[in-house]
Amino acid sequence: MKRLKEKILKEGLVLSEDILKVDNFLNHQIDPVLMQEIGQEFAKQFQQESVSKVLTIESSGIAPALMTALELGVPVVFARKKKSLTLTDSFYESKIFSFTKQEINTVVVSKKLLTNEDRVLIIDDFLANGQAAEGLIEVVKMAGAHLSGVGIVIEKAFQNGGARLRQAGIRVESLVEIASLANGQITFK
Amino acid sequence: MKRLKEKILKEGLVLSEDILKVDNFLNHQIDPVLMQEIGQEFAKQFQQESVSKVLTIESSGIAPALMTALELGVPVVFARKKKSLTLTDSFYESKIFSFTKQEINTVVVSKKLLTNEDRVLIIDDFLANGQAAEGLIEVVKMAGAHLSGVGIVIEKAFQNGGARLRQAGIRVESLVEIASLANGQITFK
Q1: For the complex shown, is ipTM > 0.90?
Q2: Which CATH number is B179's domain given?
Q3: Which of this chain's residues are annotated to bind 5-phospho-alpha-D-ribose 1-diphosphate (chains A, B) (predicted)?
Q4: Is residue A187 predicted with pLDDT exceeding 80?
Q5: Contact B136, B79 (CB under 8 A)
Q6: CB–CB of A101 and B113 under 8 A?
């Protein structure tokens, strides 16, 4: 996606060989028009899949997932990182390790929101080591739902998450793949 | 907002005299079309305010805030509940007590994303005791920005947050005001 690449080059900050900061338009401040275009692109890529539900994880996944769901005309569910007092239902539960935050999060999805009749498209902002995506895939499996694929805004292709998911036969579509962040330089694949 | 009231009556669950669960369309599963209508309604109500930025707090505020920002043609910033490793800038910081989760969250907003030239519209999913809104207002003040107003999807009018904000001269627009949740009944104001 050309405009996303331009935005990354213009406003992305390389913090280390592993960390690209895109707080300006993706995960702290959000550019709604760019997000709408991202949603349209994912909807186009997965339009043959008869998706019935978009699944993501709070918080940075919500914006691209919501725009994708709007385009596809289906609801979006975001996995929550902690049990809230209003989450009284039984739920699917999965543990996800975050390298960025160096913590394990238990994410939960209410059972009533995902069933074995659903065809699920997972959307997230980043794919690096693949932990978040795998946690969400586990939830889809627990529900007995069909996994239509995984849509990622920015894939760090130099980390192994994407390769592992694709080797497992999962369709992964990344709008932008970054080959390297070495020497403070953003190199696309 | 008629469609929102209908949705609340049809899918909202009264968990106690204080807690209304709207996980089906607002804060776990999201109805994107309803959210788009909510964004259009807030944009209409605040269109005279020359809003330059929408401000909300993760996670449930993101969807209505994003749709409002899309309509207004401005960016949205969501306050983050915890310092991430990629939040290296200096930031505005505010403490917010959550009654639902019974915990204090420190929320942060990067200083570069909010300046004294901004005209800020705060959007959130719920207004009850007003802690979240007041925390965000504190951030707006720290930035020296202008507060254009506060847009709330569902106000629990039987709690005192809305009254306190309005007494302080702040414009608060709630799409739905709930007068009572007593006896398991949802009563609109």
Answers
A1: yes
A2: 3.40.50.2020
A3: 128-132
A4: yes
A5: yes
A6: no
